[in-house]
Structures are given as C-alpha cells and as structure tokens.
Design brief:
This protein is mainly alpha-helical. It has helices at 2-7, 11-23, 29-57, 66-82, 85-93, 95-98, 101-114, 120-128, 130-155.
C-alpha cells in the first residue's frame, strides 16, 4: 500500500518524503512502553490498596468494594487534574495513565476546566463529555454485546 501511494507522488514530493523520513525524530518505543507499563501498574496498585482499605476498614466484601474503589480513584484523578499533577503523570506515563479509570476522570475534568469560562450551561455541561461520551457509548455497547453472547451461551448450555 505504501508503494502505491509513493507511485502517485511527483518526484519532488517523493524527494521531500525521503528528506522528511531521514530527519524524523525517532521515538523511544521500548522506553515509552516501559514507562506506560510502570505508570499504569502504579495506578492499579494504588487502586488495589484503596480496595483493600475498603474491605478491611469499612467491612465491604471483594464484590461490593469495586464501585467505591472506582469512585475513589476517579475522585483522586479529578483532584490531581485540578491541581495540575495529572498532566505531569501523563507526560511521563503516556497511555499508562490514560487506560485506567483515572484516565476517564482526567478526560472529564480537563474538558470541564478548559470550558469553565463559557459558563456551566454552554461551556462545562456540553463539553465535559465530548471525549468521555464516546468511552461511555462504546463501553455500554460492548457490555451489551458481551452480555448477549453470554446469555445465548448459557441458554444453549455452553457455560
């Protein structure tokens, strides 16, 4: 496919593309993956610690401690974003800070902070869920599909 695109380019465009590829900054892929893994792992470790606190100090079970843990992690992300610390974590960890539920909280509060000057009704309200809305939509749809498949398999005696 890349060769087909290159054939459609003029000689000057091909020369410029070669020039650009030679001078392109090489990204440290392995280093970025390691940093993302470490950042995401630390966030998940903190989440596990919060869940353990709920289990031992508030008499939750492992099943019932999930929702308060998620809410607490989102709240922590909201605070860190509001004080400007989550941006530093994201700069270091990249996708490692975006994938856990804290990334969802960061996306919501960042949009709210960015559009607060436009007011609550026309700024914060509609813009808060621009990025997070797609996550909610596709997450809900994926849960529906998985639940439908599981129900079909259970009805047929597969599980």
């Amino acid at each position: 496919m890349a060769n087909n695109k290159k054939k459609n380019l003029t000689p000057v465009q091909q020369e410029y593309q070669t020039f650009e590829n030679e001078r392109e900054t090489k990204r440290p892929l392995i280093g970025n993956c390691i940093k993302a893994f470490i950042t995401g792992g630390i966030i998940c470790l903190i989440g596990q610690g919060v869940q353990t606190l709920y289990i031992y100090f508030f008499n939750f079970t492992e099943e019932t401690a999930d929702n308060p843990t998620i809410a607490t992690m989102i709240f922590i992300a909201l605070l860190l974003t509001g004080f400007g610390f989550y941006d530093r974590i994201s700069q270091f960890g990249g996708a490692g800070s975006a994938v856990p539920v804290t990334g969802f909280g960061n996306a919501v509060i960042s949009a709210a902070i960015e559009h607060r000057s436009e007011g609550f009704v026309l700024g914060v309200g509609p813009n808060m869920f621009k990025l997070a809305g797609s996550v909610i939509l596709f997450g809900t749809f994926a849960a529906f599909v998985v639940a439908t498949i599981k129900t079909i398999l259970i009805q047929w005696g597969g599980l």
